[in-house]
């Protein structure tokens, strides 16, 4: 009797294991499929946040070349890295490197096209002095051109690379959005002007969406909502 009962128990356990394994695997596959879209969606949200930042910076910097190259850098660094990680999940640093290399190539091409790449290699000190003079004599909004445009674009590119590293390389969705959000405060420190209300609303909405996409659990998402409320309260003081 005991031997028959053991055999029956073993058969039942094996049947349960066989029956539950496909269901678990299917659940994990579905979760992985949903998660694979998160980097692309996160990069789109982060790119939109950088566009809002660019609009806010119009109080400080203007110029057609600046706007075009800044937008191109956003697409190359943020969107390309997000698309690369979506196509090859799991290779975070490689995807981030692809975006950074794309952005650096665009920046180098612009310098080469305008003939300033050779100038920076031959006379870097003179161009640095020109940049310092343009900053000291400029009155916001400053028309960006020449060496000053190169320096501002380089800082813009470095900030893009850092935010993309947080998003793509480390999976820190909310933290990646804080970089353009903080950079939006530059006009406040330079011109003492308040940030327009619509830009604040867009910034808060995009940060909240970044948090929602990147949060692994509902509890963490609602904690992020609380942090967002604190952020908006602080920004309103400006």
TrEMBL record:
Domain of life: Bacteria
Species, as recorded: Leucobacter triazinivorans
Segments crossing the lipid bilayer: 36-57, 64-87, 93-112, 151-175, 195-213
Keywords: Membrane, Transmembrane, Transmembrane helix
Protein name: Transglutaminase domain-containing protein
